[in-house]
Amino acid sequence: MDGVSSSLKPGQEERKTQEDIEEDEPDDWQVFPSDLQRVADRSCAEAKRSFASTRAYHVQQAAAATSPGSKVTSLDPQPSETPEVISVDVPDLTAGLKDQAVELNEGQRQVDWSRSFHGLSTEAFSAEAAKALLAPIASDDVEVKADGILYLPEIKYRRILNNAFGPGGWGLAPRGETIVTAKAVTREYALVALGRLVSVARGEQDYFSPEGIPTAVEGCKSTALRRCCKDLGVASELWDPRFIRKFMTQHVKEVFVEHQVTKKRKKIYLRKDDLVRYPFKAV
After folding, report:
1. In sequence order, what E strands does the chain have?
2. CB 123, CB 198: distance < 8 Å
3. Is the peptide bond before 210 cis (omega within 30 degrees of 0)?
4. Phi (first) and psi of residue 28, to 5 degrees
5. Would the pLDDT of 207 be above 50?
6. Which of 104, 185, 262, 272 could bridge 216 with an S-S bond, Cβ 3.0-4.6 Å?
7. What is the pLDDT of residue 57?
8. Residues contacting residue 203 through CB under 8 Å, at least 6 positions apart
9. This model's pTM is above 0.90
């Protein structure tokens, strides 16, 4: 042993002794995650204060404050926006309107027009009513669609019925539930005049979004009214091919137009006393 010790140099013997001392001493200093987190938070706060003092940060904040719809950028964590929640109480109209059936009072004499055909063809209406219903339509009342289809506006059917039966002397009674499909609304209606069933017809109307379903329901009712009026002879000329050809020759013109946005061109039909309207222009 003495021989080995004497062969070591003084510096090596001293370094070995120090290493042995460090291995024997307990390791009292340890790094914990909480200490690292505090150091990271302190560094992040110093970086924020440093950037907030720069000219670029103030220019960015001023631009965000003056720009419409922009939000001021903050260096601090922001709470996440609460997503919009749709109330479960809002009905989905595309699943159907679930119209309630009519409940009749059994103590009174009433007619269930959702099923009954009461008074159908029992007798003819009066001569005054027939004159109002069968009167020839004025050429000024007839309109033409862009595809060349002639039609009478729905409000003018109502005026003819009011002239024939008086306001309150006629009405449309729904027969069945409103059916809502992916693109259209349909329902069957019965035209009742002076307490008698006159005609039954089904109306339909297209829609483009669920918000347009109520408007489509009203259009469905108007379509059924026009179809029911055919059985009373109202505006029957519009289904007469000879009248249609004569009217088209005398009162309708063909015009080539261009859509001012899409620049697409096509041919449309107009009354001769009408003008081309936006978004089209004549070419």
Report:
1. 143-144, 150-151, 170-174, 179-180, 184-193, 196-206, 252-259, 265-271, 280-282
2. no
3. no
4. -80, -25
5. yes
6. 185
7. 57
8. 186, 187, 188, 189, 219, 220, 221, 222, 223, 224, 225, 227
9. no
Buried b (16+ CB within 10 A) or exposed e, 48-67: eeeeeeeeeeeeeeeeeeee
Tokens at 188, concatenated = 């069957």
Q: How far apart are CA 79 and CA 75, in angstroms?
A: 12
- The residue length of the chain stands at 283
Confidence class for position 88, pLDDT limits 50, 70, 90: very low
Q: What is the pLDDT of residues 210-247, one digit of tens each?
A: 999 999 999 999 999 999 999 999 999 999 999 999 99
Residue 232 tokens read as 């009373």
198 CB neighbour count, 10 Å cutoff? 20
Hey, what's the torsion of the CAs at 90, 93, 95, 99, to 10 degrees? 100
Is it the case that residue 107 has pLDDT exceeding 90? no
